[in-house]
Amino acid sequence: MSQQEALFTYCLRQADDLLILSHRLSEWCGHGPVLEEDIALTNRALDHIGEARNLLTYAGQVEGKGRTEDDLAFLRAERQFVNTKLVEQPNGDYAFTIARSFLFDAYHLPLAEALTKSSDAQLAAIAGKAVKEAQYHLRHSSDWLKRFGDGTEESHRRAQAALDGLWTFTGELFVQDDLHQGLVKAGVAPDLIAIKASFDETVDNVLAEATLKRPVDGFMASGGRQGKHGENMGFILAEIQYLQRAYPGAKW
After folding, report:
1. Mean pLDDT by 10 residues, the chain (252 residues)
2. Rg of the chain over CA atoms, in angstroms?
3. How far is CA 129 from the centre of its chain?
4. CB-based contacts of 234: which residues, under 8 Å, 6+ apart?
5. Nearest in space to 148 (alpha carbons), one of 156, 137, 157, 138
6. Is 139 helix (H, G, I), strand (E, B) or coil?
């Protein structure tokens, strides 16, 4: 695989995580537990979609085949999406949504910070714009997880159940395959060992304040980075891609 092909895939990995999580969060629009949170989650979804658009646009430029951000978002098949399985998990209750966001945020913030030092100027610029948003996202999800964990007996139970159910999907965030290792050597991508260390520190600190237990490492689900997804992914893409599939080339 050439470095150009590796960079294209790497951009897709980051973009697809954000695109799919954005869609999941958008499903809360009009259904949030309180108005402020309804708006907060919608704004988070918009932040993620904004970063995903930047990454998909750049991916299209790197690929050099004339594909736009819309082509990459709406016209790829399920097996061509390379997001982690974490972000495609259903929303569940609000504790589950918050726990899913928290685990992603604890990974995404140090990743964005590290990417600001990438040897690829465009990736560094995209990450630089995303850092402030990622800081807010982590603060928001951390605060809510602490409220749930150190709240009532019911909120604590739900938050712990959410963490226990989601933990199996966290390992995939830190897998460094040959593609990634090649980009690390080129100074394009950060070493995920350092990102994992930051993730662990954040998780341990927040869970301690939330009086929640860190789940024990065990089986870690994988395959998302290779396009092998769970049954939820097809339903997500059916919604995201409906208009372009039903009316090819439709313009607003």
Report:
1. 95 98 94 83 96 98 97 97 98 97 98 98 98 98 97 97 98 97 98 98 98 96 96 96 90 75
2. 18
3. 16
4. 78
5. 156
6. helix
Q: Would you list the domain boundaries of the chain?
A: 3-246
* DSSP code per residue over 8-75: HHHHHHHHHHHHHHHHHHHTTTTT-SSHHHHHHHHHHHHHHHHHHHHHHHHHHHHHTS---HHHHHHS
Write the Ramachandran bin of 61: left for phi over 0, alpha for psi from -120 to 50, otherwise beta. Answer: alpha
Give how far Cα 238 sits from Cα of 25, 26, 103, 129, 158, Å.
16, 15, 26, 30, 30
Architecture of domain 3-246: Up-down Bundle (1.20)
Q: How far apart are CA 131 and CA 113, in angstroms?
A: 6
Dist. CA 181–CA 156, nearest whole Å:
39
Q: Tokens 């736009």 sit at which residue? A: 68
Backbone angles phi, psi at 163, to 5 degrees: -60, -45
CA distance 94 to 28: 9
